Fold this sequence. Notes:
Elements: H1 17-29, H2 35-53, H3 59-62, E1 68-70, E2 73-75, E3 81-82, E4 85-86
Helix pairs in contact: 1-2
Amino acid sequence: MAIDREKWARKIVTLEHDIVAQVKKFRFGNQIESESEAIRRLVKSGLDAESSKGISTHPEMQTAPKVWQDQGRRLENPTAWQGGQNVTSK
């Protein structure tokens, strides 16, 4: 099956084993065909819950650091993207 790149983006994430187990339990408990679909539903549900709180007023969002660490690289502005690549410095 070809992926419609206009609609979908592929992301690779690392999860703790207990989170993987919870995703698996959610997937089979809700009779969801694929792990990817289960993760999509969980992410959407979490985003909807945050949205209902008002993301801009969420305490963690207000105190997020200006400099983000990403595997030893500094991302000066986490929203700065150029040509699909985030702008980083070492």
